[in-house]
C-alpha cells in the first residue's frame, strides 16, 4: 500500500478531530448533570420548580468557561444532538392555512365561484399531491370565473398589483408571490416565539411550498404549553359584552326550542334524523347527547350540560352567562349554531358572538360570554393597536399581562372604557376566540394602557406576552402531525440503546477473533475506530442522534465487517494458491476492492433515497447508515491494512483463520444452479402464501399511512389489552390496543375525531382517553398527573403521536416513490457496472422476491407476534435497507462471476463457472449474514419496543436476502443470459487487451 505515512497521519488527525467534536457533548452532559443535582437540592419535592431552577442555573453559568476557555453555551451549540426519542420533547408539522391567506388577499370575498373553488380545493387536498394553491387555481378555472374580478382579487388590498384587465395566469403569479411572502412571515413569527420560549437547540424549517413548517423542540416537557404557543394565531380582540341576564333569557328560549326539536323526532331513527338537511345536520348531534333513560327532572338538552350564572339575573353588570365542562363545549356550540335556535334570537342579540373563557389550570369548567359584534362579526377594536406587552403582576400579586396601545388605539381604548362605564357592561379581551379577561370599567381610562388579568400562571402570562410581541400569524396554523415523547421514556430508550450497542459490538468483536484470529483482532481495532469516526462526524455535522439512528449505527457494525470479510477471504484464496503472505495480502486487497465498492455503493444509494424521501427519525437512520458506509470503507481498506502490514513487515506469520475455522468452506462444491428449480418452487409457494395473506387480511397499517392518534400509556400493573380495547371502543367508536414492550404498557390507536385539528381538539380527545382509562389507572390519579411529562414518570401517558389524514396520504405516496425509486436507481447502476441487462434483471428479481417475502411475513404474523408489527415509516426504512443488503450480497456474487468470465471466458461451461463463483463467495456470504444477524438480534431483544418491528423486518430481510443472492438472483441471471453474447464480449475484451 502506497503512502502509508500519509494515511496514518490522516487517520490520527481525523480521530483527534472526532474526539474534539465529541468532547463538547461530554462537557455539556457533565455541566447539565451538575445543574440537575443543584436543582434537586433546591426543590427536592417540586418537579416544576426543579426545571425552573435548572434552567436558571444553566443561564447563569452559560458564559463561564468550563474547559480550556470553552463556555457551556459554546459547547451546547456543538454537542451531539439527541432526538426526541432519546431526550423527550415535541416534534410537530404545522399547516399554515393557505385558504386563510387567499381569503385575506380577497378581502374576505363572498363571491360564490371563489367560495366554491375553496371548498373544492379542501376536498381535493385529501388525495392530491399538488400544493393547495395549484388545486385552487384548477378548481377556480373549472368555475369559469375571473380572479381579477373586483369582487375577488382586484380589491383595495391588491390594488397596486392586480387590475381588472389581468388574466387568471397573471393574477396567479401575483398570488403565488403573496402566498410565499405570507408563509415566510408566518415562519419568522414562529421562530421569534420559539426563540423566546427558552428551549435549547430548537429546529424550525419550512417544508416545501404548501405552507408546512416543521418545529422540533427536544427536551420540552410542558407539551400543552408548547402546542398553545405554536398554534395561537395571536388574534387579539376587544369586545363589549352583552348583559348576561339578556343572554340568559335568550338561552332559556333556546332550551325550549331544542326540547321541541328533540320531542318531534323522538320516534324517528337517528339515521333518518342525520339525513334531514332542514336541521343542518346538528339535530343528529343533539340526539346523541340525549339520555335515552327518562330523567327524574328534565332540564332540557341545553341546561342539562350548561349551568346558568344565577347572579346574572340579579346583577346586570355580570359578564359571565354561565358555565360548562370543557368536554361539553362542542355540543353546546352545535346547539347555538342550530338554525332553529338562531332564528329565536331577539334583535338586541342578533349579531352576538358566544365565546368561551379559559379554564383554570387543571380545571374542567369554563365560562360562557356573550360579546357585542356586527354583521361581519368584527370586534370593537383589534390587537393591531397594541404596541407592547409584558408579563406583570396585579395589585394582589396575581400573574397578568400588561398592554400598551399606540396610535388610534389610545383614543379607541378611552372611548370604549367611557361607554362601558356608562352602560355598566364589561370589556372582554379575547385571544384567538377565547376570552382571557372580562372586567368592568368605572370611568374612562386614558393613557393607552391596560392589563389582562385572568386565570394565569407566570408561564402562561409569559407565553401570552411572547406571542403578542412576536406578532400574530398571518393565517391560522394547525398541527397536522405531532409526536410527543416524555423524558423518562427517552432515558429508557438511551439505556436500552446503549446496552444493545455494547452487546452487539462485543459479540461481533468476539466473532471476528474467533473466525480470523489475529487478523480479526486488527479488524476489530478498525471497527472501534470506525465507530469513533461515525459519532465524530455526526457531532461535526450537527446531526441529530435518534433511536433509529442508533439502530443504523449498530447495523453498520454488522455490515462494516463485510469489507474486512471480503478482504480476508480473498487473502485466504491467494494463500491457498501458493503465494507468499506479502503477495497474498497485496492481491487480496486489490481483488476485493471492486466487490467492496460495488456492494457499498448500492447500499449507499438506497440509504440516500431513504434520506431524500424520509422524515424525522427515518432520516436519522439513513444519515447514520450513509456515514457508516463511508467510514467503514476507509477503515477496512486503509486502517486494517496498516495494522496487517505493520504486523507482517518483520516476517511474522498471519493465518487469517483459527484452528477451528481454517478449513471451513474450503473446496465447496454445491450445485446451486442444479437446485434452482426447487428454490423457485419454494419461493413461489412462500410468495403466493404471502400475497394471499396480503389480499385477504392486508397489513397492519400504522397511522403514518392512514392517519390517527397513538398514545403509549403505562400502568402500575400488567394489563389485558383486549379488556382496555373494549372499554375504549365503547367511548371512541374505534380503537386498537396492543401490548407495547412490557406487559404494563399499552399502545392505543384511534381515529376518533382525526378529521378535526387544533390544540383544543387534541386536549378534548386526551381528556376523554383519561376518563375512559380511569378504572385501570391508580386510584386518585389526576388528569394532570396522567398527561404531564416528568423525568421520573412511571405511570400515565408516556408518548403521543398524531398524523392528520392529509399528511398521511402524502407520507404513504412518498414511501411508495422511495421504494420504486430505489429499484430504478439500483437497476441502472448494476446495468452500468456490469453492462448486461441480465445482471440487472437478476438483482431486481431478487429484490422483488425479498420485499414480497417480508411483506408476506408481516401480513401473516401481524396478529400472532407478541410485539407491534405496524407498517409505518420505520418499516419502509427496513424495506429499503433490505433492498440494500440483498443487493450487497448479490453484487458480490456478480462481481466474482464477472471476474471469472474475464479469466476463463468460454473455456469452461457457464453453469460450472457460476457455481464456482457462488461456492467461492459462500464463506463471505454466510460470515456477513451471521455478524449482521448477531447485531440485529441484540437490538431486537434488548432495544426499545418502538423499533422492535423494524428489527424484525431487518432480520427477516437478512435471511431472505442471503437466500435470494444464492438461489434467486444468480439463477434468474443464468436463465436469461445469452451464452453467445458472453463469448462475443470475451473475444472483444481480448482484442481490446
Features:
993 residues; alpha+beta; 8-stranded antiparallel beta sheet; 4-stranded antiparallel beta sheet; elongated; disordered C terminus
Query: Which structural category do the helix and sheet elements fall into?
Result: alpha+beta
How many strand units? 23
- How would you sum up the global shape? elongated
**Helical fraction:** 55-70%
Approximate strand percentage? 5-15%
The major β-sheet equals: 8 strands, antiparallel
The termini sit apart by 26 Å
Rg (C-alpha, Å)? 34 Å
Weakly predicted, low-confidence segments: 269-280, 286-296, 979-993
Mean pLDDT: 82
Strand order of the largest sheet: 5-6-4-18-23-20-22-21
Q: How many helical elements?
A: 34
Describe the structure in your own words.
Strand 15 (427-431) and strand 16 form a beta hairpin. The chain starts with a helix and ends with a helix. It contains 34 helices and 23 strands. An 8-stranded antiparallel sheet has the order 5-6-4-18-23-20-22-21. A 4-stranded antiparallel sheet has the order 12-7-15-16, with helices on one face. Helices cover 59% and strands 12% of the residues. It is α+β, with helices and mostly antiparallel strands and 993 residues long. The longest helix has 39 residues, at 4-42. Mean pLDDT is 82; it is low at 269-280, 286-296 and 979-993.
Amino acid at each position: 500500500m502506497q503512502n502509508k505515512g500519509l494515511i496514518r497521519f490522516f487517520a490520527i488527525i481525523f480521530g483527534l478531530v472526532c474526539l474534539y467534536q465529541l468532547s463538547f457533548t461530554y462537557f455539556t452532559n457533565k455541566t447539565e448533570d451538575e445543574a440537575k443535582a443543584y436543582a434537586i437540592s433546591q426543590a427536592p419535592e417540586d418537579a416544576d420548580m426543579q426545571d425552573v431552577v435548572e434552567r436558571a442555573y444553566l443561564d447563569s453559568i452559560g458564559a463561564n468557561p468550563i474547559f480550556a476557555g470553552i463556555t457551556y453555551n459554546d459547547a451546547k451549540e456543538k454537542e451531539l444532538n439527541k432526538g426526541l426519542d432519546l431526550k423527550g420533547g415535541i416534534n410537530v408539522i404545522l399547516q399554515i392555512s393557505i385558504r386563510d391567506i387567499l381569503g385575506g388577499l380577497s378581502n374576505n370575498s363572498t363571491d360564490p365561484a371563489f367560495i366554491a373553488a375553496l371548498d373544492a380545493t379542501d376536498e381535493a387536498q385529501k388525495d392530491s399531491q399538488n400544493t393547495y394553491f395549484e388545486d385552487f387555481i384548477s378548481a377556480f378555472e373549472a368555475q369559469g370565473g375571473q380572479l381579477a374580478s373586483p369582487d375577488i382579487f382586484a380589491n383595495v388590498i391588491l390594488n397596486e398589483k392586480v387590475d381588472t384587465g389581468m388574466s387568471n395566469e397573471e393574477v396567479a403569479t401575483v398570488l403565488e408571490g403573496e402566498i410565499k411572502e405570507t408563509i415566510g412571515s408566518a415562519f419568522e413569527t414562529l421562530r421569534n416565539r420559539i426563540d423566546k420560549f427558552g428551549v435549547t437547540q430548537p429546529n424550525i424549517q419550512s417544508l416545501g411550498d404548501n405552507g408546512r413548517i416543521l418545529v422540533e423542540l427536544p427536551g420540552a416537557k410542558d407539551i400543552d404549553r408548547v402546542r398553545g404557543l405554536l398554534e395561537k394565531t395571536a388574534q387579539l380582540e376587544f369586545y363589549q359584552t352583552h348583559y348576561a341576564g339578556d343572554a340568559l333569557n335568550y338561552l332559556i328560549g333556546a332550551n325550549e326550542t331544542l326540547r321541541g326539536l328533540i320531542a318531534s323526532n323522538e320516534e324517528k331513527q337517528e339515521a333518518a334524523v342525520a339525513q334531514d338537511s332542514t336541521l343542518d345536520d346538528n339535530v343528529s348531534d343533539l340526539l346523541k347527547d340525549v339520555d335515552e333513560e327518562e330523567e327524574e327532572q328534565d332540564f332540557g338538552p341545553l341546561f342539562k350540560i350548561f349551568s346558568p350564572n344565577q347572579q346574572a339575573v340579579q346583577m346586570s353588570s355580570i359578564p359571565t352567562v354561565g358555565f360548562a365542562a370543557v368536554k361539553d363545549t362542542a355540543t353546546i356550540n352545535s346547539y347555538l349554531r342550530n338554525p332553529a335556535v338562531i332564528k329565536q334570537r331577539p334583535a338586541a342579540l342578533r349579531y352576538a358572538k358566544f365565546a368561551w373563557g379559559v379554564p383554570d389550570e387543571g380545571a374542567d369548567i369554563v365560562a360562557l360570554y356573550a360579546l357585542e359584534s356586527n354583521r361581519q362579526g368584527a370586534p370593537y377594536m383589534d390587537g393591531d393597536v397594541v404596541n407592547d406587552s409584558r408579563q406583570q403582576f396585579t395589585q394582589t400579586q396575581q400573574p397578568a399581562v400588561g398592554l400598551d396601545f399606540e396610535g388610534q388605539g389610545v383614543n379607541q381604548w378611552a372611548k370604549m372604557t367611557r361607554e362601558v362605564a356608562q352602560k355598566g357592561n364589561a370589556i372582554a379581551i379575547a385571544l384567538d376566540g377565547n376570552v382571557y379577561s372580562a372586567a368592568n370599567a368605572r370611568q374612562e381610562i386614558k393613557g393607552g394602557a391596560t392589563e389582562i388579568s385572568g386565570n394565569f400562571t407566570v408561564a402562561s402570562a409569559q407565553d401570552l406576552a411572547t406571542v403578542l410581541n412576536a406578532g400574530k400569524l398571518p393565517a391560522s396554523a394547525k398541527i397536522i402531525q405531532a409526536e410527543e415523547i416524555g423524558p423518562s421514556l427517552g432515558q429508557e430508550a438511551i439505556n436500552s440503546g446503549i446496552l444493545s450497542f455494547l452487546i452487539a459490538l462485543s459479540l461481533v468483536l468476539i466473532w471476528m477473533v474467533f473466525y480470523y484470529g489475529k487478523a480479526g483482532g486488527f479488524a476489530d481495532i478498525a471497527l472501534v475506530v470506525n465507530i469513533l469516526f461515525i459519532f465524530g462526524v455526526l457531532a461535526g455535522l450537527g446531526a441529530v442522534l435518534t433511536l433509529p439512528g442508533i439502530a443504523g449505527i449498530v447495523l453498520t457494525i454488522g455490515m462494516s465487517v463485510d469489507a474486512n470479510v471480503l478482504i480476508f477471504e480473498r487473502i485466504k484464496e491467494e494463500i491457498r494458491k501458493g503465494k507468499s503472505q506479502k503477495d497474498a495480502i497485496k492481491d487480496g486487497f486489490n481483488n476485493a476492492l471492486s466487490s467492496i465498492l460495488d456492494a457499498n455503493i448500492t447500499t449507499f444509494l438506497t440509504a440516500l433515497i431513504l434520506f431524500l424521501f424520509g422524515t424525522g427519525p427515518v432520516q436519522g437512520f439513513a444519515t447514520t447508515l450513509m456515514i457508516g458506509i463511508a467510514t467503514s470503507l476507509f477503515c477496512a481498506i486503509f486502517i486494517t491494512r496498516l495494522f496487517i502490514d505493520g504486523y507482517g513487515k518483520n516476517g511474522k506469520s498471519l493465518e487469517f483463520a483459527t484452528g477451528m475455522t481454517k478449513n471451513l468452506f474450503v473446496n465447496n462444491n454445491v450445485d446451486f444452479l442444479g437446485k434452482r428449480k426447487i428454490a423457485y418452487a419454494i419461493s413461489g409457494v412462500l410468495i403466493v402464501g404471502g400475497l394471499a395473506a396480503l389480499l385477504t387480511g392486508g397489513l397492519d397499517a400504522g397511522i403514518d399511512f392512514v392517519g390517527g392518534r397513538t398514545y403509549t400509556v403505562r400502568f402500575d400493573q400488567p394489563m389485558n389489552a383486549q379488556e382496555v380495547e373494549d372499554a375504549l371502543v365503547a367511548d371512541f367508536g374505534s380503537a386498537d390496543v396492543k401490548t407495547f414492550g412490557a406487559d404494563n404498557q399499552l399502545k392505543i390507536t384511534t381515529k376518533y375525531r382525526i378529521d378535526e385539528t387544533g390544540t383544543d381538539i387534541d386536549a378534548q380527545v386526551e381528556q376523554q382517553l383519561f376518563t375512559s382509562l380511569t378504572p385501570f389507572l391508580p386510584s386518585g390519579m389526576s388528569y394532570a398527573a396522567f398527561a404531564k411529562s416528568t423525568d421520573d414518570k412511571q405511570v400515565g401517558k408516556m408518548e403521543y403521536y398524531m398524523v392528520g389524514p392529509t399528511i398521511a396520504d402524502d407520507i404513504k405516496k412518498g414511501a411508495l416513490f422511495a421504494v420504486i425509486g430505489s429499484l430504478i436507481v439500483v437497476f441502472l447502476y448494476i446495468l452500468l457496472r456490469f453492462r448486461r441487462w441480465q445482471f440487472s434483471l437478476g438483482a431486481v428479481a431478487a429484490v422483488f422476491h425479498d420485499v414480497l417475502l417480508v411483506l408476506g411475513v408481516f401480513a401473516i404474523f401481524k396478529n400472532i407476534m407478541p410485539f407491534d408489527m405496524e407498517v409505518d415509516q420505520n418499516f419502509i426504512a427496513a424495506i429499503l435497507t433490505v433492498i440494500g443488503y440483498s443487493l450487497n450480497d448479490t453484487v458480490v456474487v456478480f462481481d466474482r462471476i464477472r471476474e471469472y468470465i474475464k479469466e476463463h471466458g468460454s473455456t469452461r461451461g457457464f453453469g460450472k463457472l457460476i457455481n464456482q463463483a457462488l461456492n467461492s463467495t459462500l464463506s463471505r456470504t454466510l460470515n456477513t449474514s451471521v455478524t449482521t444477524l448477531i447485531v440485529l438480534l441484540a437490538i431486537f431483544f434488548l432495544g426499545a419496543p418502538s423499533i422492535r418491528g423494524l428489527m424484525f423486518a431487518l432480520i427477516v430481510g437478512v435471511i431472505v436476502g442471503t437466500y435470494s443472492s444464492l438461489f434467486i438472483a444468480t439463477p434468474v441471471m443464468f436463465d436469461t443470459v445469452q451464452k453467445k453474447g458472453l463469448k462475443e464480449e470475451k473475444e472483444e475484451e481480448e482484442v481490446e487487451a
